[in-house]
Amino acid sequence: MSVQTKVYEGKAKILYTTDDPEILLADFKDDATAFNAQKRGSIQGKGNINNSISSKLFQQLEAYGIKTHYIDSPGPNQMRVKALKILPLEVVVRNIAAGSLCKQTGLALGTVLKQPLVEFYYKNDELGDPLLTGDRLFLLELATPEQVDTITHLALQINNFLCDFFRRCDITLVDFKLEFGLDSQQQLLLADEISPDTCRLWDNSAQSDPNLRVLDKDRFRQDLGNVENAYQEVLQRVLKAVESN
Ligand code: TMP
Prior knowledge:
This protein is an alpha+beta fold. The chain contains six helices and 13 strands. The protein has helices at residues 46-64, 99-105, 134-139, 145-167, 218-221, 227-243; strands at residues 6-9, 13-17, 23-28, 31-34, 39-42, 70-75, 78-82, 85-86, 89-96, 112-122, 171-182, 188-191, 199-203. Bound molecules: thymidine-5'-phosphate (TMP).
């Protein structure tokens, strides 16, 4: 067996080579960062929890007909994934106004959007992941018009599926971030992770309390406490919803 080489280290995951050049091993970390890594910390057990949640959601999405990079999960914080060329885009889908949408538009937190909003951000830490216009995206040649159309369509399909899935967990999917990559056949696949790090998830049974309802990384970003418990709660509900399928 060949030695595993680190090919990429992000804020939440490390990617290693495997014996197969088409396959990488992702190690999910407990490290947590926010505000472009200006705030740093650790969430105990996060690597295992986010790997488990992401693995289940990718399996569910595959069964729904969405192609993902997911292969399997050989260890508690490990996911084997297809090696992709990741597009430098963060694709955000929003159903309810929160986070940077409120900050940049003045919309009140919790405003239900008439239709889902799909936004493209430039995945570039040095620049602080700025929001892109369509023209800037094409100017920088970050994706082709066909790829943008396909990604938008996929993001909305994924949103439909995830909204339904989380409704069965008694959770409202406020917004989330996706990443996509190209395989060796230039096929677009869903990549990265789907977890409380990358979604805003509000507990339906605590909707009247803006602090209690938060089951995602906003607990870390805003120092709301009980971060591990919230992540664990999401995992338990996801597992239950998958079992009852
Ligand atoms: P935002 O409101 O801060 O723009 O975040 C929108 C969604 O994207 C939210 O669910 C959190 C997620 N997100 C990430 O996964 N990574 C990031 O770096 C940022 C800024 C947001």
